[in-house]
Amino acid sequence: MITLSPNDLTIRDVFVKQLLQLNGVSIDKALAIIEKYSTPSSLIEAYKQCDSEKEKENLISNLKFGLNKRNVGPAIISNSQSLDFSSSNQFCLRPEQYEIVLCVDNCETASGEPNSRKLMLQNELRKNGVTFDIRKLHVGDYAWVAREKVSLIPGQLRLPKGRELVLDHIVERKRMDDLSSSIKDGRFHEQKFRMKECGLRHPIYLVEEIGTSTSLPESTLIQAISNTQSTSHQGNA
Question: pTM surpassing 0.70?
Answer without folding.
Answer: no
